[in-house]
Amino acid sequence: MDDVAASSAGVLRARPQSSIPEAGASAGRSLLTHAAELYIPRTYDPSRPSALVLTLHGANRDPAHGFGPLLPLADEAGLILLGPKSKGPTWDIVYGRYGVDGDAIDDLLADVFGRFAIDPRRVFVSGFSDGASYALSLGLANGDLFAAIVAFSPGFAQPAALRGRPRVFISHGTDDDVIALDRTSAGIVPRLRREGYEVTFRDFAGRHEVPPSVAREAVVWLG
After folding, report:
1. pLDDT score, position 151
2. Candidate CATH numbers 3.40.50.300, 3.40.50.1820, 3.90.226.10, 3.30.420.40; the one for domain 3-12+23-222
3. Are 178 and 61 in contact (CB under 8 A)?
């Protein structure tokens, strides 16, 4: 598949490297290209490859919003968080096609994979709302890269093709007035299960949100 075809299908080319510089990294948040943010946990040790979570924000939000549910747990769980920023108000696939956002994410992943020790078995993608829909779409299309997908209150899953068999965790509030629960419980979840995916689904008494208890459950589930 050439670069143009890969871009239009949302296929990511970046992969963790077998060897990286041994220099230490400063813990905490930093800015990257494409208006993205990176979080390195205090526990990061280049001699022990870490898990990485690509975190995708909701519509009209920013990388900090993508970090939101997982950031308080990142040090404890040893998670590197990579938070891109959509080029428009929300992610490209919401407008009907992959393109600039997938390309930027591929560039960002290549940069992080080249500078930090990442366990190829523990590369994950998560998101909330529109970011959850994008996490599902991108994650299912790149299941040979992402071992698991966490989708908090998604509205759809629209992969151009299916690759690999990532595990899937989905949560949704029973009183969500932004994206109806049944779009997940009666739509996305049963469809993925029919297609052979291992899906963990949690509904909770709440609205369009990610309760701390659900975020913690997702992080434990990631392992």
Report:
1. 98
2. 3.40.50.1820
3. no
